[in-house]
Amino acid sequence: MSNFEIRTHQMGRTYNLPHFFILSKGLNSGRLMLQPCPNCFVITTGSKQTRESLFYLCQSLKIGKYFHYYLKGSVIPFICISDAKKVMQTALQNNQEQWQIKVQKLKKIEALESNLKQQLSAISQLKMVLLRS
After folding, report:
1. Domain count of the chain?
2. 68 with 50, same domain?
3. Cα distance from N-terminal residue to C-terminal residue, the chain
4. Residue 65 is part of which domain span?
5. Distance of CA 5 to the CA centre of its chain
6. b or e along 86-95 (b: 16 or more beta carbons within 10 Å of the residue's beta carbon)?
7. 67 within 8 A of 84, measured Cβ to Cβ
8. pLDDT tens-place string over residues 31-73
9. Nearest-CA neighbor of 90 among 110, 70, 74?
10. Is the dihedral of CA 103, 109, 113, 115 positive or negative?
11. Cβ neighbours of residue 19 under 8 Å, at least 6 residues apart?
12. What is the pTM of this model?
């Protein structure tokens, strides 16, 4: 699963391989994105399965605030590409066993979270309809 490449994204560049983006500047450094922005890294992999697994690995690293330790800069904090790669490599080595099980559990949690957001949206709309009638 450690077959990935991380680079600084250049605006206007397109990628043929499976990929995703990680924000590199600001207090949200490490946040995952499907669409690029000017201050991000791109992670490319050889297969969709590896991409998905790395995506959830990076998501768990962001939630666990593993990238925060490596933030540098006083005005606009940022993470270096070498530090981001080191965090990911360390996590890959530590989580090689049972990682697929964790990915499946993360998918289920994400589905539940999405369902709850839809329910909250529906409740909000219901309140608006109730108050306007």
Report:
1. 2
2. yes
3. 56
4. 4-96
5. 15
6. ebbeebbeee
7. yes
8. 888 888 888 999 999 888 888 888 888 888 888 888 888 999 8
9. 70
10. positive
11. 42, 43, 44, 45, 51
12. 0.75
